[in-house]
């Protein structure tokens, strides 16, 4: 059986990841235990060595006191209850989990997190986290290198990145930064700052190319630095009071009659965090324009047409969003072509930012990166796979370095604990516009260095207090497994190979099952997420096919009322919608399944779309070479049995 999946981690490579995880069976328990105990003891010695002359404040007799014992027993009782309750958790670590973008945790990250927790660093600033704030800034540089941003802090236009609670807040930060940069040139004009070659009118100022706006900000900073302290204070205050951050959107627009609330253009497949972001920022959900996809990618012709219309209507655009790894299908938008469209629109006078939401797919870049940081050619990458990377996917990932900002979730494909999203921007100078205190740049009159500047992280990030343990976890993981194809990329490669094996097996399954069900992989996977559409033979109604898939999925999801062991596999579902796929694609898929498109159009909520199974192939142990087990095969055998049973009961129900 195993030999049917020759690609999925060839024998020689497989031991490279043996020490990476606790393992599905807890195989590396001794290693984890040793590390945790070692560093816990180390923490205790640290306490004792702070001022060894201070005597212990809790007496050695204390542990025999009834109050002590009562507290201990209450604590134990509650902890045991917690531990027992947690046994109902979703087994993310198991190769039987094929649901969402989460899997086992990398040991370096898990141990770094556990070991840092008792020190309780607060990454709001260096004062509260002398060690881990620096690690967070370094994580930004590690990720910047992975996607092709400049990552040398000695360069004035080095990138910058920081962690967030997740991709949602990183996307929010992208909106906030793009708006600050868009509106700043308008404020400079409003304040009447001399000597800067300001844009000729408000419209031009609001629609600069982000590079031009950044250069203008830089000129302003240099100009300011050359002023006397009194003049500097005066101008800083004047500009400050003309900024959108001071006036609010309504106040700002009231002063600039030519301007309107700018639009955000994103594909229909965009994550719902974009809707939240527009609400949160006060731009209003109506200013999020969703663009159609074609062949599972953002339709750049539609994007270009929309931008042309905006330019004619004098409707400003804040940013276009490309998705690298859509939440539902794992597909990749054509970032390279979106960049070309952005350049053309900017040249025509409609400058705006380009952000990539790579919350899900950001780490795919590891397989494109050499150890020295250079980019591998598509042929070099393709030699490791059967079909990956499609030309469009390669070009999209390779183009990341030219975008303005990127969201990446280490807690997804980074195999790190939740609470770690990341926001990156190409040129760190723009973060001046986020700072709460205007004088952060200048200490006296000397500009601060990069690392020194970001020690007051709380000045720049959406959050305030936040965990330094998260930063330590991501930093240490990226040190143990650098973000190139030979190190971290081995894990990424694994997931892509598993998806390719899954796709091949799905085709075999479709052939074996054709008497009772039409099965289809609706589109080739861009990376490690494979969907499966199903329709019982003879059925032509979408509602009926949906009910069938829903009952399959019902046995593959968490149910706190049932013992975990009753579940054979965990999976997830998503839907195919005409507005996301385009009419032609939708028609092709419905046709291949033998479904009547008319039954989709007239349907109620929920059945105006096709429910499909969705599988994330992220677990490193889907193919167990040790015991010759393929959990991919086992999954399809399980599905086969379930479908046969379901079909039989459908047959009985249909009989007179
Ligand atoms: C997961 C995801 C998000 C949201 O990230 P959270 O970490 O859940 O906040 C945003 N965009 C995409 C494409 C995602 O996959």
Structure commentary:
The structure is a single chain. The protein is an alpha/beta fold and 656 residues long. Among the domains are: 132-184 and 261-488, Type I PLP-dependent aspartate aminotransferase-like (Major domain) (Aspartate Aminotransferase, domain 2); 492-654, no CATH class. The protein has helices at 11-14, 29-48, 66-85, 107-116, 132-147, 167-191, 202-206, 210-225, 229-240, 244-255, 273-280, 300-312, 335-347, 378-382, 391-398, 450-453, 468-480, 488-512, 542-554, 578-581, 583-593, 598-601, 631-654; strands spanning 160-164, 263-267, 288-291, 293-294, 297-298, 317-323, 353-358, 405-408, 421-425, 442-443, 446-447, 517-520, 529-536, 572-576, 610-616, 623-624, 629-630. β12 (517-520) and β13 form a beta hairpin. The protein is globular, with a radius of gyration of 27 Å. The model is unreliable at 1-8 and 440-445 (pLDDT under 50). Residues 166-168, 171, 271, 273, 323, 327, 357, 359-360, 409, 421 line the site of pyridoxal-5'-phosphate.
Key terms:
globular; binds pyridoxal-5'-phosphate; 656 residues; 23 helices; single chain; Pyridoxal-dependent decarboxylase conserved domain-containing protein; 4-stranded antiparallel sheet; 7-stranded mixed sheet; Aspartate Aminotransferase, domain 2; pyridoxal phosphate; alpha/beta
Task: Describe the secondary-structure layout.
Elements: H1 11-14, H2 29-48, H3 66-85, H4 107-116, H5 132-147, E1 160-164, H6 167-191, H7 202-206, H8 210-225, H9 229-240, H10 244-255, E2 263-267, H11 273-280, E3 288-291, E4 293-294, E5 297-298, H12 300-312, E6 317-323, H13 335-347, E7 353-358, H14 378-382, H15 391-398, E8 405-408, E9 421-425, E10 442-443, E11 446-447, H16 450-453, H17 468-480, H18 488-512, E12 517-520, E13 529-536, H19 542-554, E14 572-576, H20 578-581, H21 583-593, H22 598-601, E15 610-616, E16 623-624, E17 629-630, H23 631-654
Parallel strand pairs: 2-3, 2-6, 6-7, 7-8
Antiparallel strand pairs: 1-9, 4-5, 8-9, 10-11, 12-13, 13-15, 14-15, 16-17
Helix pairs in contact: 2-4, 4-17, 5-17, 6-8, 6-9, 6-11, 12-13, 18-23
This protein binds pyridoxal-5'-phosphate.
Pyridoxal-5'-phosphate binds at residues 166-168, 171, 271, 273, 323, 327, 357, 359-360, 409, 421.
């Amino acid at each position: 059986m195993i030999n049917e999946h020759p690609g999925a981690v060839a024998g020689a490579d497989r031991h490279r990841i043996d020490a990476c995880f606790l393992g599905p069976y807890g195989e590396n328990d001794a290693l984890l235990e040793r590390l945790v105990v070692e560093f816990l003891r180390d923490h205790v010695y640290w306490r004792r060595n702070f001022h060894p002359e201070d005597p212990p404040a809790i007496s050695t007799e204390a542990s025999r006191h009834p109050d002590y014992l009562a507290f201990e027993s209450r604590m134990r009782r509650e902890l045991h209850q917690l531990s027992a309750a947690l046994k109902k958790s979703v087994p993310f670590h198991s190769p039987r989990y094929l649901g969402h973008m989460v899997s086992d945790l990398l040991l370096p990250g898990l141990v770094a997190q556990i070991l840092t927790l008792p020190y309780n660093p607060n990454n709001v600033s260096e004062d509260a986290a002398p060690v881990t704030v620096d690690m967070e800034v370094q994580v930004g540089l590690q990720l910047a290198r992975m996607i092709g941003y400049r990552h040398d802090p000695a360069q004035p236009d080095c990138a910058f990145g920081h962690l967030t609670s997740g991709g949602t807040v990183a996307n929010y930060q992208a909106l906030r930064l793009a708006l600050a940069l868009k509106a700043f040139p308008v404020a400079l004009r409003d304040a009447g700052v001399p000597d800067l070659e300001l844009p000729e009118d408000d419209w031009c100022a609001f629609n600069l190319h982000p590079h031009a706006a950044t250069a203008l900000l830089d000129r302003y900073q240099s100009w300011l630095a050359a002023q006397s302290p009194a003049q500097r204070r005066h101008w800083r205050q004047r500009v400050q009071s003309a900024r959108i951050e001071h006036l609010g959107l309504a106040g700002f627009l009231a002063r600039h009659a030519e301007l309107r609330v700018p639009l955000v253009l994103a594909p229909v497949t965009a994550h719902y965090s974009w809707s939240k972001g527009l609400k949160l920022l006060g731009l209003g959900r109506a200013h999020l324009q969703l663009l159609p996809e074609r062949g599972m990618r953002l339709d750049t012709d539609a994007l270009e047409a929309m931008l042309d219309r905006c330019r004619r209507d004098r409707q400003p655009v804040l940013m276009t969003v490309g998705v690298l790894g859509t939440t539902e299908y794992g597909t990749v938008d054509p970032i390279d072509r979106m960049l070309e469209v952005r350049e053309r629109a900017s040249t025509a006078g409609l400058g705006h930012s380009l952000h990539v939401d790579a919350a899900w797919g950001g780490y795919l870049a590891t397989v494109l990166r050499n150890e020295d940081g250079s980019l591998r050619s598509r042929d070099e990458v393709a030699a490791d796979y059967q079909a990956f990377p499609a030309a469009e996917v390669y070009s999209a990932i390779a183009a990341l370095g030219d975008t303005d900002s990127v969201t990446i979730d280490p807690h997804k494909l980074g195999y790190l604990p939740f609470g770690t999203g990341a926001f990156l921007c190409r040129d760190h100078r723009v973060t001046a516009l986020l700072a709460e205190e205007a004088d952060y740049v200048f200490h006296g009159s000397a500009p601060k260095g990069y690392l020194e500047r970001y020690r007051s992280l709380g000045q720049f990030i959406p959050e305030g207090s936040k965990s330094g343990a998260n930063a330590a976890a991501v930093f240490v993981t990226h040190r143990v497994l650098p973000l190139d194809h030979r190190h971290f990329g081995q894990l990424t490669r694994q997931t892509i190979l598993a998806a390719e094996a899954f796709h091949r097996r799905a085709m075999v399954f479709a052939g074996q099952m054709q008497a009772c069900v039409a099965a289809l992989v609706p589109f080739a996977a861009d990376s490690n997420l494979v969907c499966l559409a199903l329709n019982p033979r003879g059925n032509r109604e979408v509602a009926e096919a949906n009910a069938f898939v829903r009952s399959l999925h019902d046995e593959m999801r968490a149910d706190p009322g049932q013992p975990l062991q009753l579940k054979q596999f965990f999976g997830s579902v998503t839907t195919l919608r005409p507005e996301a796929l385009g009419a032609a694609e939708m028609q092709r898929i419905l046709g291949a399944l033998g479904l009547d498109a008319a039954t989709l159009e007239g349907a109620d909520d929920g059945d105006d779309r096709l429910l499909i199974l969705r599988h994330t192939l992220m677990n490193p142990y889907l193919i167990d070479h040790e015991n010759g087990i393929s959990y991919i095969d086992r999954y399809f055998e399980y599905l086969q049995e379930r479908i046969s049973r379901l079909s039989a009961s459908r047959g009985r129900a249909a009989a007179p």
